[in-house]
Amino acid sequence: MILKLIVFAAIGIFIYKLMGGKLPTVSKKNSKPNKTKEPDGDTLVECSQCGTYVSIKEATLINGKYYCDECV
């Protein structure tokens, strides 16, 4: 019985050392700041006034809303 305990402890220590001596941790969802991904030039956005979709290169951002060139 004690021999089994020693064997399991040795296997546990071996696995612990194999993992670099670090135990896996559970991270909290809110511990890391949320990084918002910047849209690239090919992303389509909807015009807030007329509802058409234009590329973000052609859109104008006013007060957090996108507008096409015709509605500005």
Please describe the topology of this protein:
Elements: H1 2-18, E1 44-46, E2 53-55, E3 60-62, E4 65-67
Antiparallel strand pairs: 1-2, 3-4
Describe the protein in words.
- The chain has 72 residues and is α+β, with helices and mostly antiparallel strands.
- The protein has one domain (2-28, 39-67).
- It is built from one helix and four strands; from the N terminus they run αββββ.
- The chain has one helix spanning 2-18; strands spanning 44-46, 53-55, 60-62, 65-67.
- It has a two-stranded antiparallel sheet with strand order 1-2. Strands 3-4 form a two-stranded antiparallel ribbon.
- β1 and β2 form a beta hairpin.
- The relative contact order is 0.11.
- The mean pLDDT is 82.
Write a brief caption for the model.
This protein is of the alpha+beta class.
Count the E strands. 4
> Which percent bin holds the helix content?
10-25%
Strand order of the largest sheet: 1-2
Q: Can you tell me the number of structural domains? A: 1
Low-confidence stretches: none
Query: Helix count, per DSSP?
Result: 1
| Average pLDDT over all residues | 82
What structural category characterises the helix and strand content?
Answer: alpha+beta
How big a fraction of the residues is strand? Answer: 15-25%
**From the alpha-carbon coordinates, what is the Rg to the nearest angstrom?**
27 Å
H/E series: HEEEE
Overall morphology: rod-shaped
Distance between the termini: 81 Å
Let me know the largest β-sheet: 2 strands, antiparallel
